[in-house]
Amino acid sequence: MVLQHSDRMDSLFSPQTSWVSGPIIVGAGPSGLAVAASLREQGVPFTMLERADCIASLWQKRTYDRLKLHLPKQFCELPRMAFPAHYPEYPTRRQFIDYLEDYAAAFDINPLFGHTVLSARYDETSGLWRVRASSSAGAEMEYIGSWLVVATGENAESVVPDIPGIDGFGGEVVHVADYKSGEAYRGKRVLVVGCGNSGMEVSLDLCDHGARPAMVVRDAVHVLPREVLGKSTFELAVLLMAWLPLWLVDKILVLLAWLVLGNLAKLGIRRPATGPLELKNTTGRTPVLDYGALARIRSGEITVVPGVARFGKGFAELADGRVIALDAVVLATGYRSNVPQWLQGNDFFNKDGYPKTAFPNGWKGESGLYAVGFTRRGLSGASADAMRAAKDLARVWKEATKPTKKSTACHRRCISVIF
């Protein structure tokens, strides 16, 4: 046993410190699972930290019952494992969760659950990443390794807007992350704030359960049919993009939407001047894929209203001066990345928690930093990043662990100092 060691090594390792021989992966959602599976196949060890008590906590704990994948299943598969053949083209929420759990089991992915990352920073002196995490039991650990994979994704935290008067509304106010079914709102007047895919689908769900929803449409939004002549609109766009420039594909999609859905301006829904694909690429705003909500808007079962100026006791005053009585509010106002809250001393991510370098080159930073799941291109984008990151990590890990006389001697000295 070595009784004395340097102050530098003493500060680096402690009883609450764990050395990770491979990458440290933060997040056990689809992005983290995808990179972990790709690493596992290449024999690279890893440690995965997850703050929840399950994989894919967004899907398991913060999604509504009727949710289905908005895109055909072939565009939502993770690397090296297809969906079961008997799954429908648009798998349900439960089917997707089952797929992810089977995926984790197939690749022997066992995250450390209940581990909330408090901070992660690169130590220039040691050339290592230091990741502090708090466990659900209250203990604090530090994980140290040469590589860090940020896989917390684009939807880590709910976005709750500060609307004047909402604290004094008096009725139920929930974010869509806590909404499960319209059954609890039967017969009630509900304002859905937000008109993205979640806002449209929640409004439709409320209708199906006998509620009286009004949906806030404040900004211009692209609404596309989910299918055209039995063909997925997304699949059609992918096919067209292989042969045509983006601007032309956008024009074709808008024309098809007009032919199938009609003039939505009459319903209070304005289209942006920028095409749907260009808008997605530049701002991350996803077009809404309709499969029933527009019909309910036309029938009057869903009322479209402008932005909210303020809330009062049991009512909302709209931007146009109208006042509507309400029993409940559902905030379909989206999610955001939480990376700026815990990743320290690094300028790879911008203030909004996205890589500054655009897709497809935003998956790798400096000093062993990798990012997976920030492409604004859904599960297919996350899978693409995961495969790139895992391939590069396997290369650098094998180089770093290649045995040499010098590295073996250094390893023995480090082991004797640590223990």
Automatic annotation (TrEMBL):
GO molecular function, one term: flavin adenine dinucleotide binding
Enzyme Commission number(s): 1.-.-.-
Family according to the record: Belongs to the FMO family.
Source organism (scientific name): Oryza nivara (Indian wild rice)
Catalyzed reactions per annotation: indole-3-pyruvate + NADPH + O2 + H(+) = (indol-3-yl)acetate + CO2 + NADP(+) + H2O
Biological process, per Gene Ontology: auxin biosynthetic process
One of the Pfam families matching this protein, by short name: FMO-like
Transmembrane region(s): 236-261
Keywords, alphabetical: FAD, Flavoprotein, Membrane, Monooxygenase, NADP, Oxidoreductase, Transmembrane, Transmembrane helix
Name used for this protein in its record: Flavin-containing monooxygenase
Cofactor: FAD
